[in-house]
Every structure is written in C-alpha cells, then in structure tokens.
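Support reply, case 0932

Customer input (verbatim):
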Amino acid sequence: MERVGNVASRIEKANVLKDKSVELCNVLYSATRDKLFREMDYPKHKVDDIFDLINGRAFKPVDWTLTGMKIVRIQNLKHPELPYNYFNEPVESKYIIRKDDVLFAWSGQIVSLGAHVWNDEDAILNQHIFNVKPKVPMLSRFIQDGFNALIDEMKTQVRGLEMFNIRKQELGKLLLTVNPLDEK
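Our regenerated output:
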C-alpha cells in the first residue's frame, strides 16, 4: 500500500508541475503576442475600418429551452465545458455563429474581455459578444490574437465599476496591425 501511496503522491506532484507549466506557457505566449503586435512593421487600421462588429441577441431566461440551438454566452467562451442554454425558435441569420467565427466578449468582469475562435457546431450568439467579421479575408487565429493583443489598451477604455464593458465606438477607434499576407 505504501508503494501505491508513493505513486499517487508523485502523480499529484506531476499534475501540479504540469498545471504550472501550462500557466507559464500561456503567460509567455500572451506577452510574446502582445509584443509582436506592438512592434510589427505593418500598417495599422482602425478596427471599424477592417471589421464589422455584430452584437449578439438579447435573451431572457424565459426564452431558454432544453432543446434547439446552443446559445453562446461569455461563460461558454471561457469555459466550453459549462452547460449551454438553448433556443428553439428561428433567429435572424446575423445571430448565427459558425465554425471559425471570431467572437469577442466585450462586457462582464475585466477578465472576461477577450477574443475566441468558435470551433463548435452552428449556434446562436448571445448579447455582450461581438461576432468579428473581417471586411477583407484574414485568418481567424490572426484576428483572435490581434484583438487579444489590444486588451491592455481596451482596459483603459472600459466603463463600469464591477461589470465592465467597452463600447463599440471606443473599440472601433483602436488600431490593429494588419499583416499584408492576410490581406487579399
């Protein structure tokens, strides 16, 4: 039994080290991404000039159903394993999100601000999230990294005390580096 306990203890220590390594890698990636976008020698464009920002639909809890299409909320972007709400009625096509769409959470706790690439089935976009639609072809991952590289700048633009949001007109004025290889 002592041997099993030793193995279990080593596994626990390995898991702690793995979690710390993942956390450090994420910090390093973010810092490198931010520096790259700040220092790239490519044109910068206002977000409004290169993207359409489509806000999600406002749902009330009484709208939720047990079946239908997933409603993607901010919590689902940060934690896709959490339960989804569903909606079982037709919605305008502008609220439908598809694989590889870039979704930007613009409201909530400051840690909620951020861009995510949707990699799941078609779903419905909830309010407080923009579907970021490029006006020229760009890679989804490039858009995600570009928006996330702007987070520190966005934090100076947010409003609110406990719940934060960045208004569309403020976000639209921010400058994003655009790699000419992504422009077609």
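We compared this against your earlier run and they match. Two observations from our side: The chain is about 35% helix and 20% strand. The first strand starts at residue 44 and ends at 46. Please reopen the case if you see a mismatch on your end.
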